[in-house]
Amino acid sequence: SQQGEEDPQALSIQEGENATMNCSYKTSINNLQWYRQNSGRGLVHLILIRSNEREKHSGRLRVTLDTSKKSSSLLITASRAADTASYFCATDSSYKLIFGSGTRLLVRP
Amino acid sequence: KAGVTQTPRYLIKTRGQQVTLSCSPISGHRSVSWYQQTPGQGLQFLFEYFSETQRNKGNFPGRFSGRQFSNSRSEMNVSTLELGDSALYLCASSRGDSSYEQYFGPGTRLTVT
Fold it and tell me: Using CA atoms, how far apart are residues A44 and B85, in angstroms rounded to an integer?
């Protein structure tokens, strides 16, 4: 079962533009994490935001968390072609991560 | 620090065979988790081990099993392979439980024919 559902499923933008992807989840959480996956490879951890945090930044990444709406968003600013990948949100529960369906981001040069 | 390694990277098996996949976590990490990724089902949790103890298991049939050794290395085994077992199998390690960031290996691409 998937805890998080992501929106949009696919996103195509021009290099230099910002990319925003959203994640909704169903149950209460301790934290929410975002991962990136380049085509058919392993996942790379991007950022973790705890349930008592509302916003977190890391380089060109900005994550927000709204626990009342059970939703999170990931903003990538000034996108680059190298940002082309799939992005997943994940919540943790009982020693496991429950992943969303992912957003496929294409950044056109 | 060396990353998570998985062997083999690619594997082709026929239906009915069994397969063993291996995962070496980052040094010092005691938690190892396994995930299956398919286009249809996405990323699904298989099991998690910590200090040789399985703490959680996903909703997979008993054909899927795993173990962890005293050096934290982990193996997963799939017996009586089915076509639907074709997937990317990902291993992740962390310092503690899933509330910590997970470090993923490159995965093992299993194809069942």
Answer: 24
Which residues on A lie below 8 Å from B9 (Cβ)? none
**pLDDT tens digits along A8-35:** 999 999 999 999 999 999 988 889 999 9
Tokens representing A5 are 């559902």
Q: Are B56 and B40 in contact (CB under 8 A)?
A: no
Residue B49 clears pLDDT 80, i.e. is over it: yes
> CA-based Rg of chain A, rounded to a whole angstrom?
13
Cis peptide before B8 (omega within 30 of 0): yes
Asked if B65 contacts B76 with a C-beta cutoff of 8 angstroms, the reply is yes
SS3 A79: coil
Res. A3: pLDDT tops 70? no
Alpha-carbon span B23 to B32, nearest angstrom: 8
Q: Is pLDDT above 70 for A4?
A: no
Rounded Cα distance, A20 and A11, in Å:
9
pLDDT at residue A66, as a whole number: 96
Structure tokens at A101: 């369906």
CA gap A68, B53 in Å, rounded: 35
CA separation for the pair B26, B30 (Å, rounded): 9
**Is B105 within 8 Å of chain A by CB?**
yes
Distance from CA of A90 to the nearest CA of B (A): 10
